[in-house]
User: What shape does this take?
Amino acid sequence: MKPRGIERPIGLLLGFATVASISLLAAGTAAMAASGIAPLDRPFPRFDLAGLPPDLANLHLSGLLWLGLLAVILTPSLRVAASLVGFTAAGERRMAVVALAVLAIICLSAAVGAGG
Amino acid sequence: MTDLPLLLIGGGAAGAFGALLGLGGGILIVPLLTLGFGLELREAVGVSLVCVIVTSSATASVYLQRDQANLRLGMTLEMFTAVAALGGGLVAFLLPDRVLAIMFAALLLFVAVTMTRGRAAQSDDGVSEPDGVSAERRDGVDLAEALSGPGYRIHSLGPGIAGSLFAGIVSALFGIGGGIVKVPVMHLIMGVPLRVATATSNLMIGVTASAGGLIYLFRGGIDPYVAAPTAVGVFVGASLAARLAHRVDLRVLRLLFGVMLVFTALQMALRASQ
Assistant: This one.
């Protein structure tokens, strides 16, 4: 009998995260339409990580949109984190190190982007 | 207020075309936003990276559940695409818009020629089955063997890594998934069956675009008002197209797509020269 791989549960998790993040963006798009904001209005709001929690607490449109976009951008990282757990549990140390390295690079991207 | 439905429809069309032709859709979204909606190229690239992640996550989810993607190979190569995307994302903010537009026009022409020439006939040899190699054995063998799948053995890992680095730079510079580079590299150079290479490339695209996307996000390069409706449109379009794929004549579609890309490349070059 062939052993069950980690691919299927990770695929399910990825699918769930994608639908959840797109649902946030769809809600944000509907809120944009309801509040009469045109997509090409300038200037557009810039991402501010520190401002996200208060924007969400005050139900600001930009908070909802940024949360959805952040969820979309971080969905692949969730897949990598789940792979790290799966490989570690399966005793595949080399692949666990690879997953850790990918996560580190993604964190580095965020740090470089935020720093500059 | 007509821009909102137009972005949803445009995103939907790009997502559908991308899904039918095995692309992330970025190659269509960037021209749509620059030529159709007047966005600056860098803004369009930021939005496109978000859309490419959506397409990748949605399709990779299915490929993983069907055991078609090689997770281990994808994760190993995406270490290199992600590093390169980080670099590409930084370079993109240094290059003038006009230079980026000319480079993008050249990329469009390359993709048009590649697509209209058609891919090699797809075979079923690459449909993977649940892996029977134990974890202990994977850690004990050489890397190429550990990354190989049922029925095929990977070779030329070095050139594969070089190709992955190039794909990462291209992805972050132009807001595309980079599958146009990754699939031929895996299939023709590394010996991965075409179907597995396509599925694995889709999986890798998400992390590559994520590394570039974070740079754009934190540097103010993503417009949430444009990105949200376009990404929703892409998701709906790609999901619908996946269900209709078997009814579409891909040869005709590929030819139309090639003609459209050549026309778009000319428009981009014209815009850059103004």
In short: Chain B has one domain: 3-273. Chain B touches chain A through 70 residues (CB under 8 Å).
